[in-house]
Amino acid sequence: MAEYEGGAADADDVAAVTRAVLTASRLLVAVSARSLAVVEGQVTLPQFRMLVVLSTRGETKLVELADLLQVAPSTAMRMVDRLIATGFADRQINPGNRRETLLRLTAEGRRIVEDVTAVRRREIAAIVERMPADRRVDLVAALDAFTEAGGEPPVPHGTAALHPLGWTDA
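Structure (tokenized):
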């Protein structure tokens, strides 16, 4: 077991870490919910998830998109139809295989993702700035280990790249 400042880890360290992560996740969900207020009435949370996946993957086939979102293709198609109707996504015939349709973000769809992400980034940065500097280093190490254990790919340093939290990005 890991050692902490106070000595040997207690037998309940997994439960303590789980409680701490659950508490932090409530904060992150609240930040996410507040950031979605930027697009309130324009897209639903599932539609926003689809926009984020399209922003990270680029042009994507419907079946792949449904798989990434872990929804049925028919559900994905309804979501895509709604996003196309709002002007946030469009579809085109795959020039490499005319039987396939590719889905992609429009400029307006990309703006939605960027706006929501900017709000989240600012709010998280404000929270992090209130932390003592030495604890920030600890937090980075802990979150890196946590995301690695969960199989989430890291966001490349020096970029604003997005990775859809909790969604595979195969």
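The chain has one domain: 12-150. Residues 12-150 form a domain with the Arc Repressor Mutant, subunit A fold (CATH 1.10.10.10).
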